[in-house]
Design brief:
single chain, alpha/beta, Diaminopimelate Epimerase, Chain A, domain 1, 5-stranded mixed β-sheet, 6 helices, 5 strands
Length: 184
Amino acid sequence: MKILIPVLIFICLASCSQQPNDTITPSQLQEKIKDYANVLNDNQKANLFHLINGFEREAGSQLSIITVDSLLGESIHSFSRRKAREWYHSQSDPDNRILITVVVQNKEIAIYAADRLQHIVKKEITNQIILEDMAPRFRKNRYGSGIFVAVSKMKKIFKDNKVADGEYRHSHKNDHSTIAVRQF
C-alpha cells in the first residue's frame, strides 16, 4: 500500500499536467498541426497538440502534422519533403523532424523522418503504422484517432530506442531521410 500511493500520485500528476483543457493559442496549434482539410475537430487538435508536446519533450525531436484535400498533381513524397524543409528551416536542427502528411482526396498518407532519425524511424515501422493503425481508421473517416495512434506509436518507438545515458541507439547522422507512403 505504501508503494501504491506514490505511484498513484505520480500518475495523477503526470496526467494532470497535460490535460487537453489547457489553453492553447491558435498560433501554438498551427506550429504543430496544419489541418487544411478540416478533418480534425478542436478537441482532437488539442489532444494531438499535448501528445506532440510530450513526444517532443521526451524524444527531443520535432513532430508536425499536415492534412490537405489535394496536392493538385504534386506527389505526396515531394510535397512532404518540401513542407518539412519549409516548416523547419528556422529550427536549429532541421535534421531532427518528423512530418505526418495526409491527403484526403488522394487517400494518401506519408510519414517523413529526416536524416538523423532514419535509424529510429525506419520505413518498415512507418509502413506498419500506416497500414495497421492509420489506414483502417481513415477509411472510416476517423482521422483524429488514426493520427493520435500514429503519434503515440512514434513516442513509444523513441522511448524503446533510448539507452541509459539519454542518447538513442545507433545515433549517427545519415545522408538520407526516410519516407513511407501508402494509400488508405
